[in-house]
Design brief:
183 residues, mainly beta, two-stranded antiparallel sheet
């Protein structure tokens, strides 16, 4: 799977090997703290061993969005076709030269979940309005979801975005990331 290129299959199959070539940056915020949290959406499930290839022990699964807060739950494995947040403990800068390798992966027929937190397998140009609703699109940047722009947004394959249907008057500039505490 080449990051930035469209992916999709009509029938499920087992892949002997899957390679993924996306790089993950490690950036410092205004307070000097380093972050590398990114969205990801892959066409196969991952267990803890697979997640460790991204230099993580857990991923974050979307639970709900309420007001200006998006709540995610920590998980130690992922499902195919479902978007997640991950935060590698260091940059992954050699993926183009030495892609991450996964073995014996079940690849289901492509089906991207819909709803508030949406994954994509193709380059998407999202319009400002769609099906009669305003698309208030938030892309993830280090520790929060930032409003992209009122004219629409573009996203590369194997990423995810948060969509809100807030009215224009109550639209937030950013949405806080929160880890679900079980309550």
């Amino acid at each position: 799977m080449k990051s930035g290129y469209t992916f999709g299959v009509n029938e499920a199959f087992t892949a002997d090997k899957v390679w993924f070539d996306r790089k993950f940056a490690y950036k410092k915020d205004a307070n000097g703290k380093s972050h590398s949290m990114s969205t990801i959406c892959l066409p196969f499930a991952m267990d803890a061993t697979d997640l460790s290839k991204f230099k993580v022990s857990k991923a974050y699964e979307f639970k709900t969005a309420n007001g200006n807060t998006a709540t995610f739950q920590e998980v130690t494995s992922t499902e195919a076709d479902k978007p997640y947040l991950i935060e590698p403990s260091e940059a992954i800068s050699t993926a183009n030269d030495k892609p991450l390798e996964f073995s014996n992966k079940q690849i289901p027929a492509s089906k991207i979940a819909d709803g508030d937190f949406i994954g994509t397998y193709k380059y998407r140009n999202l319009p400002a309005t769609e099906n009669g609703y305003g698309n208030y699109i938030f892309g993830f940047n280090t520790q929060k979801f930032n409003y992209v722009k009122s004219t629409g947004a573009s996203f590369k394959p194997f990423r995810a975005y948060l969509r809100s249907k807030q009215s224009t008057g109550s639209m937030a500039k950013s949405i806080e990331f929160k880890i679900w505490d079980g309550s």
